[in-house]
Amino acid sequence: MEEEHPKGSYNNASHQPNISESEKKSRTTVYIRGGSARFICGIIIAIIILAGLAALILWLVYRPSKPKFTVVSAAVYDLNNATSPSPSPPAISTTFQFTITVRNPSRRSSIRYDRLLGYVLYHNQAITPPSPLPPMYQEEDSTVAISPILGGDQFVPISSDLASGFATDEAYGVVPLRVVLMGRIKYKSGVFRSGWFSMYVRCDVLVGLKKGLVGQLPLLLSPACNIDV
């Protein structure tokens, strides 16, 4: 009669390895170190998420708004649309003055303007040379007016078609112009300061300009200016 072995006794005896005390301590140490690393990583991730949320909240609270430009008046003090002898191209010299309101709609951000230039276009061609303008600082939620004088006695070469078109518009007494302001701006919101941003402002206007007229011009159309920052 075969001797019966207790159920499972053979398997237990053959498959359970003998683990020394030093190996048990080593495994425990690895487990503890792994748990500590996961805990530290969790803290770092939480700090990064909280910092991101804080930055987002600050940006939403202090985010700056683009300034708004509007031409409110125009004047001409000199206009000479001359046709030079061939082969030289026609040229024009003129002096305009535009009063432009600048609105900072932000209640938390002030704006600093720098490296400003202004000039006048007629049908996308310059009729005045670029004129440097002084830097400017604008408080929060404020409106200021600037009155740059653009042009001078310097002749600017133009095409024959442009000279003819300008003379025709001048005869009708309605001349479309574009006032361009370029420069850079910086925002300040409390203790936060932005970097410099390029600014490009385009103001399309219709003025009542006739030959021989000097001084204030009727402003026939002056929508809000377009600005790229």
Structural class: alpha+beta
Q: Flag low-confidence runs.
A: 8-14
Number of helices: 3
Following the backbone from N to C, one meets helices and strands in this order, namely HHEEEEEEEEEHEEEEEE
Specify Rg, calculated over alpha carbons. Answer: 37 Å
Number of strands: 15
Q: Please, what is the average pLDDT?
A: 84
Largest sheet: 9 strands, antiparallel
Oligomer: single chain
Task: Note the overall shape.
Answer: elongated
Write up what this structure looks like.
The structure is a single chain. The protein is α+β, with helices and mostly antiparallel strands and 229 residues long. Helices cover 27% and strands 42% of the residues. The chain is built from three helices and 15 strands. It has helices at residues 9-15, 21-62, 160-172; strands spanning 68-82, 91-104, 110-122, 125-126, 131-133, 136-138, 142-146, 149-151, 156-157, 175-189, 192-193, 197-207, 215-217, 219-221, 226-228. Strands 3, 4, 5, 6, 10, 11, 12, 14 and 15 form a nine-stranded antiparallel beta sheet that branches. Strand 1 and strand 2 form a beta hairpin. It is elongated, with a radius of gyration of 37 Å. The relative contact order is 0.17. One of its GO terms (cellular component) is plasma membrane. InterPro entries: NDR1-like.
